[in-house]
Amino acid sequence: MLSIYYDSQCPLCVSEMKSLKKRDEHGVILLEDLHEPEFALRHPGIEITKALQVLHGATSDGKMLLGLDVSAYAWKAVAPKSFNSRLFGLLRSRYFRGISDLAYRFFARHRYTISFVFTGKKRCERCIIARAAQKDCQ
C-alpha cells in the first residue's frame, strides 16, 4: 500500500494520479489531496507546504518517499511491466538519479506553468479523481 499526498490544483499532477488509479486493480494506491479541508487533521505528520514543494508518499510500513521515488514506487506497484514503470526505474538508477532529481525539482517548482503549456490549464479550481465520470478539472 502506498499513500500519495498530491496537489489537486495541478492539472498534470491530477492526470498522473488518474493514470495510476486507472491501473490500480488491487487498490494498492491511496490518494490524499493536500487541499482537502481536513487534510492537516487527518495527516498531522505531513507538512502541507513541504508536500506542495515535493511529492510525498508513505508506504504501509511507514517509510516516507519523496519526489520521483514516489512515482517509481507507485508505477512498479500498479503496472510493473509498463513503460512508465520502466522509465521511472531507469530515472532512479544510479546513472540518472542526479539529473532526474534536478529535472524533477525544476518541474515541481514550475508545474503550474508547465501544466498550462501542455494542457491549457494553469491550475484546477477543483480536480476530482475518484469519480469515473469526471474526465477533467472543473
Q: What can you see in these coordinates?
A:
This protein has 138 residues and is of the alpha+beta class. The protein has one domain. It contains seven helices and four strands, in the order E-H-E-H-H-E-E-H-H-H-H. The chain has a four-stranded mixed beta sheet with strand order 2-1-3-4, with helices on one face. Helix 4 packs antiparallel against helix 5.
Helix content: 40-55%
The major pleated sheet works out as: 4 strands, mixed
Strand order of the largest sheet: 2-1-3-4
> How many distinct folded domains?
1
Please state the average pLDDT score: 91
Quote the beta fraction. Answer: 5-15%
Please tally the β strands and state the result.
Answer: 4
Structural class: alpha+beta
Sketch the topology as an H/E string, one letter per element.
EHEHHEEHHHH
Radius of gyration: 14 Å
Cα separation of the termini: 29 Å
Question: What is the approximate shape?
Answer: globular
* Total DSSP helices: 7
Runs in which pLDDT lies below 50 for 5 or more consecutive residues are 131-138
Structure characteristics:
four-stranded mixed sheet; 47% helix; single chain; disordered C terminus; 138 residues; alpha+beta
